[in-house]
Structures are given as C-alpha cells and as structure tokens.
Amino acid sequence: MIPRIFIYITLILIAAALLPPAITAYMRTSKKPQPRIHFIQDMDNQGKFRTQHENPLFDDNRAMRPPVDGAVMRGEIVDSEHLTSGTLNGTWATSFPSQITVNREFLQRGRERFDIYCQSCHGLAGYGDGIVDQVARDLLVNSRLGKGTSWVPPRNLHELTIHQQVVGEIFNTISVGKNNMPALESQITVEDRWAIVAWVRALQRSQNAELTDIPESDRDNLETVNLIPSNNEEEEADEE
Ligand code: HEC
Question: Which of 83, 110, 210, 237 qualifies as a cystine partner to 97, CB 3.0-4.6 A?
Fold first, then answer.
C-alpha cells in the first residue's frame, strides 16, 4: 500500500508541472501594453518605422517612401532580351545585341574588365591558370588546409567546347555563373559584360590565329617579334 503522503506529493507535482505551459499559453494568447520578456535581445528591438505605418517626418506622413522619379527596379528589363539576358526567342544569341558596337575602344574596356573580374581565376590569357588557381593547387598539395578538400579549377577558355559556345551563352555564364563559378551580374554592368565577352572572343582568336588572319603587309613585322618560327624548314626537320 502506497502511503497517502506520496500520492498527495505526486498530485501537487503534476499540478505544478502544468503551471509553466499554462502561463506560456496565457502569455501567448493575451495582449498587454508592455513588451514581452525577451532574454536574448540580439538586435530585435530598435527604433524603426514599419511598413504601412506613419512617419511624421514626411509631409504625407507615410513611412514608406515612393520610388524616386526615374528609379529602375533591380532586374527590370531595359526592353531587350538580347541585351540583358543574351537570348533571342529562348535560345542563346549568336551575335552581339544591336545596342553594342564592338570596336577597338570596346575591346580595350573588355580587356580591362576581364583583368579585374576574371583573370584572378581564369588567368590573363584565359588558360584557367590565374593566381586563385595557383594558390588553390598549392594549398591542396602543401598545406593541411588542402586535406580532404577538392578543387574545381577555373575553365580553360581555349577549350573547344568554350570556343563553340555562342556569345549569348558566355554572356549568361558571366551573368549568372556556372556550377562553381560565381554570378557576376550584380558587379558588372550589362555593357561591360558584353565587353568582356568580346575580349574573351579576342583571347580565343589570339591563341588560335592563323598566319592568314594577319594582313599580308604586317607579316614581316611579326617575324621580328618572333610570333612565327623564323626558320620553318628547321622546325619541320625537328618534327620528323
Ligand atoms: C572565382 C573564380 C572565377 C571567376 C572570378 C570567374 N570564373 Fe569563370 N569559371 C570558374 C570556374 C571554377 C569555372 C568552371 C565551373 C565548372 O565547370 O564547375 C568557370 C567556368 C567558366 C566558363 C565556362 C562555362 C561553361 O559553360 O563550362 C566561362 C566561359 C567562364 N568561366 C568565363 C568567365 C569570365 C568571362 C569571367 C569574368 C567575368 C569569369 N569566368 C570569372 C571560376 C571563375
């Protein structure tokens, strides 16, 4: 037979255990003028104006301000799919948009932007051997930091598959990134992204140039800077 006292104590304990949830439920459902007890403040309570509330600072008393005249919403299409997304009727555009004029100055701009935004990973000439790649490879081999990790190297932009990509697709890669490559559209303007595309094309062309790409009148000069072997016969002999 259990002594009565134990039964009483158990009942009291059960009743006491019900108190916290009861208080919590009451607190959650009732309204009070004072703020709730809030142990961990973080930055939850601070002076601010909420949406759809009043703010006497402004003439119209509205806390929400209308956009400034001429404001363009982020991502708002500037009326050309070709220009802003590199597509035409849902497929990658094969040409530069009409708003863009590719000339020497534009290429220079592209080169400058490429050197700022791309070469750290892809290398100055686009071979995927930028400083980031070099450091990563070094860490992988020589540092504890590299243990258990892997490295996705930046693409070599002279690979055939990238050569075969049309300009719209490259524009898209710069804009939204690709697998491990970050999106850069928030950092580089639409025009500059096209300028970089033009420079990528120039780099690709430069690494695969044929003698016939060079105007005949300029070919003599080339020999002096040693871009083509000065003694073709010797070269052929070596290969044999
Ligand atoms: C932080 C390093 C990094 C930067 C900066 C970077 N890339 Fe990349 N890029 C990568 C990596 C890594 C890949 C390979 C992604 C994969 O295949 O997983 C890649 C892939 C690519 C590809 C091939 C995409 C495909 O279809 O396979 C192109 C083209 C390219 N990058 C162009 C650029 C251009 C142009 C810039 C500058 C605007 C740039 N990248 C900046 C790291 C970078």
Answer: 83
